[in-house]
């Protein structure tokens, strides 16, 4: 009976880690499906790139939160989070090719990937697992 409660808690814990990722992915998809994107007051030249950077940076941070909280041991977790967010950015741009009024802009993809890189690094740094500590852990794991 006690083992059943542990399994149930584990399922709930997993859901709480991955639900924000799923919700954010859905919001990105919905936003990129709108045939005429919201007209935002343009304050500076590369404002749209900053929006992409933050949008996919949040995705990267949510992925890192889910992956690192579960204690999955792999020296590739950092790059997997960035890669997954970047892949979704590429798929998002591909998807926009089929949405009337939208177009593919590979500089948006670059902003998506850079945002994921920065936000994952910041998230890990705030958690005490910055790139330097990550590199040390990778070296120890490889030995």
Automatic annotation (TrEMBL):
Entry keyword annotation includes Transmembrane: yes
Residue ranges occupied by any VanZ-like domain in the UniProt entry: 24-124
TM spans (from-to): 15-38, 50-68, 109-126
Keyword Cytoplasm included in the entry's annotation: no
Keywords: Membrane, Transmembrane, Transmembrane helix
Domain of life: Bacteria
InterPro entries according to UniProt: VanZ-like (IPR006976)
Database matches in PANTHER family: DOMAIN PROTEIN, PUTATIVE (AFU_ORTHOLOGUE AFUA_3G10980)-RELATED
Protein name: VanZ-like domain-containing protein
Organism the protein comes from: Candidatus Glassbacteria bacterium RIFCSPLOWO2_12_FULL_58_11
Lineage per the UniProt record: Bacteria, Candidatus Glassiibacteriota
């Amino acid at each position: 009976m006690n083992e059943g409660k542990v399994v149930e808690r584990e399922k709930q814990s997993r859901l709480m880690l991955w639900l924000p990722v799923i919700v954010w992915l859905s919001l990105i998809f919905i936003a990129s499906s709108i045939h005429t994107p919201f007209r935002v007051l343009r304050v500076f030249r590369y404002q749209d790139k900053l929006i992409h950077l933050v949008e996919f940076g949040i995705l990267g941070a949510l992925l890192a939160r889910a992956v690192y909280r579960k204690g999955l041991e792999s020296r590739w977790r950092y790059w997997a989070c960035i890669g997954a967010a970047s892949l979704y950015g590429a798929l998002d741009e591909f998807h926009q090719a089929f949405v009337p009024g939208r177009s593919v802009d590979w500089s948006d993809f670059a902003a998506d990937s850079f945002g994921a890189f920065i936000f994952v690094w910041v998230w890990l740094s705030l958690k005490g697992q910055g790139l330097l500590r990550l590199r040390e852990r990778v070296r120890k794991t490889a030995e």
